[in-house]
Amino acid sequence: MKKISAKELQDLLQTEKIELIDVREVDEFANGHVAGARNLPLSGLAENYLSLDKTISYHVICQKGGRSARACEFLEGQGYQVTNVEGGVEAYPDELTQ
């Protein structure tokens, strides 16, 4: 599984358009998330992942990196290109959007 740090994600967002999926629950996402992230909770991922495009590479984030790692394992198994953001939003050095 590909991995990057939250700081590397911040740097990447400055120069590229990234498809970022936040797999935290809806209430966690509403309390603050990385700008531009799409909420797709891990708890419903197995039922909702087909809305994702297999031709696009996704970065996956959660609170600390555990749920996003599980989501990445699942999505890789389904044929998606994913990168786990280690440290999650807790380690993200920029302000979160609400």
From TrEMBL:
InterPro entries tied to this protein: GlpE_sulfurtransferase (IPR050229), Rhodanese-like_dom (IPR001763), Rhodanese-like_dom_sf (IPR036873)
Matching PROSITE patterns: RHODANESE_3 (PS50206)
Superkingdom classification of source: Bacteria
One Pfam family this sequence matches: Rhodanese
Ranges of residues in domain Rhodanese: 14-98
PANTHER family: FAD-DEPENDENT OXIDOREDUCTASE (PTHR43031), SULFURTRANSFERASE YTWF-RELATED (PTHR43031:SF17)
Name recorded for this polypeptide: Rhodanese family protein
Organism: Streptococcus gordonii (strain Challis / ATCC 35105 / BCRC 15272 / CH1 / DL1 / V288)
